[in-house]
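Hi R.,

Here's the chain you asked about this morning:
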Amino acid sequence: MSLGIKQATSRRDPFRRLGDSPAAGKLLLAERLAKGAPLPPAPYEKFTENTIVDAEALRIELVRINQQGWAAAPEEIVLGVNALSAPIRDDDGELVAMISLMSSIQFISRQPSRELIDGIKGAAREISEMLRL
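And here is the predicted structure, written out as tokens:
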């Protein structure tokens, strides 16, 4: 098994295409929107019938993500796959990382279970608290 690290070398916004941002990317976009940054310019690439390609629908989704404190991307990039992410914050409350789960829609349903949501949010909270030590 090998671990690879991919470094973006492009100067264009890496979130220009929604394909670059499943659940963790949506968290970052939600954070940026909450701080007054504009949405990435359309058009957005459609990967599946579930991909958000409408700017207003994306804005509504990002506001909801900020309110609930987690993001999901059910079959938005690949059919049969969902991702769930929660923010990790530093002692100033700034987003510094995300913790994510990705699996078959069989295991992370379109509407993730409360147990999964609470688990990932709890793990993110614990990591955030460790950063404050």
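One quick note: The chain has three helices and three strands.

Cheers,
M.
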